[in-house]
Write a structure and sequence with these properties.
Length: 165
């Protein structure tokens, strides 16, 4: 489902005494977060005064958050971005957009389930599809994933022998 706002990071702690936030990236690498001019926090637009990568985390300094105490109050909150601002390459999607897609056998057109979870592993993502029983689909284009159509809430997959068992 096409989302207007997408969660891209979770504030996990603070860094230092000047109100910098340690942000765990939810999508991709931490440097992905450094390219945004606006984040959304609790429904409000916030502008980063600075954003850099440190040890796999994004360190984010928000305007108006000047000390550690103010930053502590944001721990656990999610940072969102406007989907249109993300400019992902063609054929790339945020994990949150894929949750809830109807999954179909690309050869027969038969509905086989609903995508209910996305797990990230070093080699690739793995989708959990809930049908008659849950099964896993490697998120490998052309080998398993034939088509993703967010407008029609549809994903077509190649069902290999034993995949749904």
């Amino acid at each position: 489902m096409k989302l207007e706002f997408v969660p891209v990071g979770r504030i996990v702690s603070v860094h230092g005494i000047r109100g910098e936030l340690r942000v765990l990236p939810l999508e991709g690498e931490a440097d992905f977060l450094t390219g945004f001019q606006t984040f959304y926090l609790d429904g409000q637009a916030v502008a980063p005064a600075a954003c850099r990568v440190h040890k796999g985390m994004a360190l984010l300094k928000l305007e108006g958050i000047e000390d550690r105490t103010a930053a502590e109050g944001l721990r656990g909150k999610e940072l969102l971005v406007r989907r249109a601002d993300a400019r992902l390459p063609e054929g790339e999607y945020f994990d949150g957009e894929l949750i809830g897609l109807d999954v179909f056998n690309g050869e027969t057109g038969e509905r086989v389930g609903e995508l209910v979870r996305v797990d990230r592993y070093p080699a690739s993502r793995v989708y959990t599809v809930r049908g008659e029983r849950d099964f896993l689909v490697p998120a490998v284009k052309d080998a398993f994933i034939l088509n993703v159509d967010l407008e029609n809430n549809r994903m077509d997959i190649r069902v290999w022998e034993g995949l749904m068992e």
